[in-house]
Amino acid sequence: MVLRFVVILCCIKLISSFVSYQPEQVHLSYGGNPYEIVVMWSTTNQTNESVVEYGIGGLIKQATGLSTLFVSGDNETRSQYIHRVTLLQLTPRSKYVYHCGSDQGWSDLFWFMTSSDESTWTPQLAIFGDLGNENARSLPHLQEEVQRGMYDAILHVGDFAYDMDSENGLIGDEFMKQIQPISAYVPYMTCPGNHEEAYNFSNYRARFNMPGNSEGLWYSFNMGPVHFISVSTEVYYFLEYGLKLVTKQYAWLEQDLQV
């Protein structure tokens, strides 16, 4: 009985000392313009740098960024480091290959296509909401179609994982891994739904990077001839997070429509 107790203690110590610098949950989004791509990923432990190696036809360029410690809002305080790197001045309608990480560990090799600069170009999009960690029947179809090059971007309009904060953020981690075969190949553009409200939308704000807005809940971007505007109806419902979100979004939208 004593021997068994010692073995259990050793196993617990081994699990608690687990270390990983390997990138996971890789996903893309647009930056400040259609020819900027933001690459995001997570690591269990902090790395000494956040790097994307990329290029047309090979890994010939390098861009660096930053990592941020994200701690779950639950008492268990699961933590991870979320990395952001922006690729600037990309060539229109070109196929780039890339991987991300550091000299402590790299991701698989991925690719993406940049937008066309032609005003007559018609983007091919998949638009959906309410995709959970369980029973995500559309997921394998989306994975296959994205990797066949059928879409230029994804618009996921709210309700992720059910819910990203569940089980101390573990459900969010698993969901981000599930969508990687999609989100690592095309910009995965998002907006929050009611399932993202926990801790003032903290899981959503930390895990996704949308262009041009510090609040992380509303934004706009251009893609070919289309100007997309994403607003959050949740700021009108979850008023416990303050009326400032309502007034800020209204002022921002008014200004955006004038441009």
Outline the structure in words.
β5 (66-71) and β6 (79-87) form a beta hairpin. The chain is globular and about 50 Å long. It has helices at 2-16, 139-147, 170-183, 198-207, 234-237, 244-258, and strands at 24-30, 37-43, 51-55, 61-64, 66-71, 79-87, 95-102, 105-106, 110-113, 125-128, 131-132, 153-157, 160-161, 188-191, 219-223, 226-230. With 259 residues, the protein is of the alpha+beta class. Residues 1-16 have low confidence and may be disordered. It has a single domain (22-258), classed as Purple acid phosphatase-like, N-terminal (Immunoglobulin-like, Sandwich). Strands 3, 4, 7, 8 and 9 form a five-stranded antiparallel sheet that branches. Keywords: Glycoprotein, Hydrolase, Signal. Pfam families: Metallophos, Pur_ac_phosph_N. This is Purple acid phosphatase.
Q: Could you list some keywords that capture this structure?
A:
about 260 residues; alpha+beta; Immunoglobulin-like; five-stranded antiparallel sheet; four-stranded antiparallel sheet; 6 helices; disordered N terminus
